[in-house]
Design goal:
alpha/beta, five-stranded parallel β-sheet, 5 helices, 45% helix
Amino acid sequence: MKSIHLISVGKNKDKNYLALEADYIKRITSFSFFVHEVKACEENLDLEAKNVIKKIETIEKGTSAQVILLTEKGEKRDSPQFSKWLFTLLEKGTVILVIGGASGHGDELYKSFKNELSLSKLTMPHKLARLTLIEQLYRAQTILQAHPYHK
């Protein structure tokens, strides 16, 4: 089964958000989904970037994965476009989505990975962006399956 890994800088401790995330995650059946939290380094983007790259290397284990950085400048897609794009990426192998810390991503990540995705033109709290992304992963699955969730 294909897999998607979400690397998120910072630990989500909010039980309400975690409960909502868990609900969407249990509904995802078209691919394996994993959430990895990397320690935030108090605005030290270089150190955060090194930690994220180390996690990416651990996930890849010598293989090649599609790494996508979530940024405000990234490509914007509506839900049907996102679904088609995501499942096209999954056909090629593992997908790694990276949500940076409060100040974004370090330069090393931008140098190493060129693919960027934006969830919205709006600015939103880190944990809301993470929840929105997880919901959109589930929605992408339902679009692919022509399920009525996406109307």
